[in-house]
Amino acid sequence: MPRRKRNAGSSSDGTEDSDFSADHEHTDRIETYGRTRRNTRLTRASLRLSQSSQDSSPVQTSPAEVVTFSARRVTRSRSLQQGPPVTPKKYPLRQSRSSGSDTEQHVEDLKRAADQDESLPRTPTGNAPSSESDIDVSSPNASHDDSLAKELSLKDSGSDLSHRPKRRRFHESYNFNMKCPTPGCNSQGHLTGKHERHFSISGCPLFHNLSVDECKTRASSRDKQVEERTLSHRQDENRHDTRHQEHRQSHGNNREPLLENITSDYDLELFRKAQARASEDLEKLQGQVAEGSNMIKTIVFGRYELDTWYHSPYPEEYARLGRLYMCEFCLKYMKSQTILRRHMAKCVWKHPPGDEIYRKGNISVFEVDGKKNKIYCQNLCLLAKLFLDHKTLYYDVEPFLFYVMTEADNTGCHLVGYFSKEKNSFLNYNVSCILTMPQYMRQGYGKMLIDFSYLLSKVEEKVGSPERPLSDLGLISYRSYWKEVLLRYLNQFQGTEISIKEISQETAVNPVDIVSTLQSLQMLKYWKGKHLVLKRQDLIDDWKAKETKRGSSKTIEPTALKWTPPKGT
After folding, report:
1. What pLDDT sits at residue 162?
2. How far apart are CA 312 and CA 318, in angstroms?
3. CA nearest 39: which of 223, 215, 168, 163?
4. Which of 134, 150, 345, 567 is within CB 3.0–4.6 Å of 129 for a Cys-Cys bond?
5. Rounded CA gap, 506 and 35, in Å?
6. What is the 3-state secondary structure (H, E, C) of 288-339?
7. What angle, 0 to 180 degrees and rounded to 10, lies between the N-to-C axes of helices 511-520 and 500-507?
8. Which tens digit of pLDDT belongs to each residue from 330-342?
9. Gap between the Cα atoms of 492 and 478, Å rounded
10. 3-state secondary structure (DSSP) of residue 367
11. What are φ and ψ of residue 462, in 5° steps?
């Protein structure tokens, strides 16, 4: 209870307070007990004492006074319980003069109510005293003060939960007066079928055009479906585990694990499609990594994208690419379309380097010296190796001359094909390597290149022959050219006797090649110890028909050649 100030030497009735100094210490102790007890909960004994005091005494006591008095525990000794009731010894409570006569009267009423209580006194924890040591009724005033201090220390040491809010029970927090906002709904049932009432639109069966029974029926069917799915899933897992173990025992790590029943069929199908697409992209970009295999699958050459046929020894950083980009004028190779675009914007070449020695219409032939234009000739050999199987010359290009045939338009001279020949050939080979680009094949350009090589041999007054071995396509082209040369010569020949040597001098074709061609046409016979050349008119007539149909657009005109043989050849 709050302590009120007063002047020393004065009392409530205005008389001299002679014993104030003697009672000051005891008064402070009692007021301290009162302030401490405000923060503790009332025990059952204090509640019973307060109720008894209210019934027996007309004087109303304040809660603070009840707390102050409850600090004194009044119990009966267990040893005296069997005998007649013993009145506990009462100790005079010394109060300060400031409390007034009303306070003393209230304390006496509380003491009287405690004496009238016949129930067994309780300890501060609400239990009966366990031994006689809990209270000493025969102790003097000093021991009584010690017991009060001990009781207060025990109560103060306990957890004080009075500051925490009281936990509300479910029936106290749940508002049973809530109703569903849907008009005409009585809040009965729930959309999930698992609750008896609902209070929102999300759980209202009427709002979702359903009844309470339908919701319960659907809930039970859903539960059954979940149980069936769970059971089926467990069975599938057991079956899959068995198959997986058998598959693992049979094949080990040599095959892909079984993927069925691991996920949904839709996800598995997406995974299979991703596998196939990744495999296809890997094949396009890298190809088959094997010895001798061609890792460059396609090349971008001008406005064409060409599939390669054979392996070419490009540098390793380019060879591992799946696609190569080339400038069709300078034959430089690049890694990407962006690099090619930038190069084309700066490239000043519009035709092969070297001298133009032949022109007829839009067809031109350039003579390129391998010693003067080494980089261009090396790039040309690497490009040719992508389409030739037996070519072995790549970098040693100085002893060779390259004759490049082009087709001109408004953008430049586009590469059609080429052939190379040695500057000094001991065996009089007029062709070392010959190639027609795939986009110009089967259009007569191959025969034009062969005819041009023999035209150069005629100017040199030599008999020429291609270097062996010939590729498959090269052999077919040369056989076709030799056939046309022989049939044209026989068509124009008017004599009765003919010799292989004369044919060779007129056409610059090697006699060996002439004999092999006549044998393949079944025009060479051996009769009476002599070799006879038969003039088959049927073959000549077929050749005339094809020549008339083909026209003269894809032929070499000797008068259009502007060339003199190099010195030393």
Report:
1. 52
2. 11
3. 163
4. 134
5. 142
6. CCCCCCCCCCEEEECCEEEECCCCCCCCHHHHCCCEEEECCCCCCEECCHHH
7. 110
8. 999 999 999 999 9
9. 21
10. strand
11. -130, 160
pLDDT of res. 64: 40
> What is the C-alpha end-to-end distance of the chain, expressed in Å?
136
pTM above 0.70, yes or no: no
Q: Give the orientation angle of helix 500-507 with respect to helix 472-492, to 10 degrees.
A: 110
Rounded CA gap, 66 and 76, in Å?
20
Is the separation of the CB atoms in 373 and 354 below 8 Å? yes
Token duo for residue 245: 């173990």
Q: Are 465 and 429 in contact (CB under 8 A)?
A: yes
pLDDT at residue 360 tops 70: yes
pLDDT at 8 over 50: no
Choosing from 467, 484, 497, 547, the catalytic residue is 467
Burial class (CB in 10 A: 0-12, 13-18, 19+), 348: exposed
Residue 379 has pLDDT above 90, yes or no: yes
Residue 555 carries which DSSP code? S
| CA-wise closest residue to 23 among 12, 31, 34, 13 | 31
What tokens does 397 get?
């290009």
d(CA 1, CA 65): 8
Q: Where do the H-state alpha helices sit in 89-211? A: 100-116, 141-157, 170-173
Closest to 159 measured CA to CA, from 185, 125, 184: 125
33 within 8 A of 101, measured Cβ to Cβ: no
Q: Residue 121 to residues 33, 66, 67, 151: CA-CA distances in angstroms?
A: 21, 16, 16, 15
Question: Is 367 marked active-site?
Answer: no
Tell which residue, 69, 95, 79, has the closest CA to residue 135: 79
Name the token pair of 123.
Answer: 């300890």
Task: List Cβ<8 Å contacts ≥24 apart for 76-84.
Answer: 76/120, 76/121, 76/137, 77/132, 77/135, 77/137, 78/129, 78/131, 78/132, 79/132
Q: Report CA-CA distances (Å) from 278 to 250, 416, 525.
A: 28, 36, 63
Summarize the confidence of residues 488-500 as an average pLDDT: 85
Closest Cα partner for 429 from 421, 439, 437?
421
Residue 305 CA to residue 48 CA, distance in Å, equals: 107
